[in-house]
Amino acid sequence: MAAAPVRRAHGACRSGACSGIVAVSPASHDRFAMTHTPLSAAAAQPALIDPHDRAVPLFTVEQLRAAEVAAQAALPAHALMARAGAAAAHFLRERLAHAPSPASSKPVWLAAGPGNNGGDALVVATELHRAGVAVEVCMPVEVKPDDARWALAQARAAGVPIAGSAPASFDAYGWLVDGMFGIGLARGLEGVFAELAERLCARAQSHGHVLALDVPSGLDSDTGNVVADGPAVRATHTVTFIAAKPGLYTGVGRDYAGSVAVAPIGIDTEAAPGAVRLNAPALFAAAMPARDFATHKGTFGTLAVVGGDTGMCGAPILAARAALLTGAGKVHVGFLGSDAPPYDAPHPELMLHAAARLALGAMDAVAAGCGMGSSASARQLVDAILRLRALVLLDADALNLVARDGALAAHVAQSAAARGTPCVLTPHPLEAARLHGCDTAAVQRDRLAAARALAARYAAVVVLKGSGTVIAAPDGRVAINPTGNAGLATGGTGDVLGGMIGALLAQRLPAYEAALAGTYLHGLAADTLCAQGDGPAGLTAGELAPMVRKLVNRLFYAPGYDA
């Protein structure tokens, strides 16, 4: 009997990464009805979500405040703080239970700030103390909000040791907990809190364990930047409350947050309209093409990679090889330069041409810009590409040409209307700044806003590269990509990404889904290579595409995989 054709699943992938979000049932209100044991009641089965491979919503401060207000109206007093502290205490107990001795017997040290983040820390300390874990709290300034005052009263009643200053050394302690400041911090850390942040950073960088409650103190949870360029806590782990935050996944936020777990604390955020999402296969798996028996090379599309001026022919070769290994049926390369190779020896499947002789009208998709240069010929070629019915990706030099040519810039948006589908633009921050007419610092100050503005201005899907790549569609959808690492900080990796997304466009994925899939798989390939010891130092762009091929097949087309 013939084997079944290898197909994709509808909206899911073999690894389980495409299954979407684990449902978290809101905690029942009567959990807090017994006022004489509020903390122990709050600790009952706290739910924690690992956002890895899940398309979790990412909430801004404004969205979080609205969710808190709505929840508090239906809950007993102090319930959210009790739940948050219980969830973080549960996280710590789990890690202490599996820690090697004597690390598990060292006291947990907690820094409590003057606001509700300090109240969260006090609840954590009380929960741990009642569970028999040695704790010490440092509260330089007494907490002020009502919820935090309640938490302080609970801690004092339980006998939690609370001091006004930090010890001279943290050597005697195991986990250190940052509960100084949470979301919405408007000014940089100062005084004793700045000093504590620097000491916690030093501990994390010396391989100690530092847990941040909600967000690392001093980090802007909306943008992933350090507030007012002051110090911020560099945590090894973050337990974030209600929902994950954009700033934990983009900019320097990824470095400061460490490993993130989400404690929903009973608030359902899944149906939030307009929320940014963490990129995951659940957002693009359904768009991956089936690989039936009755297919041919034309089924999976024809891509042209266009670029490669004199001295830069390697860039389109990298992109084209990546396109081939990402599943495009046929890949052509059009070179502008005079030193183009006649064929690609490692991949003779690639069809190489002078750009002027490339039949662009026969292509399903065109990826233009890698190594293209800035000549008049390059400008004319970009203009011609924008007139095609084919799906278009612009990268590198093509973006620079658009940035300094108003007619080309207008043509990008006009071509989307004529074609009925947007272009994909893949700028790094400097290219994005040129497209915006601003400096790079302005782009990095708010990466989500910058990507959204570019998407609106050019009616395009924008892939703003960098740590926590932002993918923005002109219809308002936005995602932040969680995969990738410092191994990608080397020449040619952007060319590989352009070729991958181009291949997915040729396979007829919608522009936004192609950008999501390409970005996710590109970063995942780097993560997988690093896990094997092939990075981050010394990882090369050419190593990515073979790993991408393996990942695509494992996730979507593995033998025996049932649609």
Output the keywords.
563 residues; alpha/beta; Rossmann fold; UDP-N-acetylmuramoyl-L-alanine:D-glutamate ligase; eleven-stranded mixed sheet; seven-stranded parallel sheet; 17 helices; disordered N terminus
Overview of this structure, please?
The protein has an eleven-stranded mixed sheet with strand order 1-9-18-17-16-15-14-13-10-11-12, with helices on both faces. The radius of gyration is 26 Å and the shape is elongated. It folds into two domains: 230 residues, Rossmann fold (3-Layer(aba) Sandwich); 259 residues, Ribokinase (UDP-N-acetylmuramoyl-L-alanine:D-glutamate ligase, 3-Layer(aba) Sandwich). The N terminus is likely disordered. It is α/β, with parallel strands linked by helices and 563 residues long. Helix 4 packs parallel to helix 5, helix 8 runs parallel beside helix 17 and helix 10 packs parallel to helix 12. The protein contains 17 helices and 18 strands. Homotetramer. Its EC number is 4.2.1.136, 5.1.99.6.
Write the layout of secondary structure elements.
Blueprint: H1 38-42, E1 57-58, H2 61-72, H3 79-97, E2 108-112, H4 116-130, E3 135-138, H5 146-158, E4 162-163, E5 176-179, H6 191-205, E6 210-213, E7 237-241, H7 253-257, E8 259-263, E9 276-278, E10 302-307, H8 314-325, E11 330-335, E12 351-354, E13 365-368, H9 376-386, E14 391-394, H10 396-403, H11 406-419, E15 424-425, H12 429-436, H13 440-445, H14 447-458, E16 461-464, E17 470-472, E18 478-480, H15 493-506, H16 511-531, H17 544-556
Parallel strand pairs: 2-3, 2-5, 3-4, 5-6, 6-7, 7-8, 9-18, 10-11, 10-13, 11-12, 13-14, 14-15, 15-16
Antiparallel strand pairs: 1-9, 16-17, 17-18
Helix pairs in contact: 3-4, 4-5, 8-15, 8-17, 9-11, 10-12, 15-16, 16-17
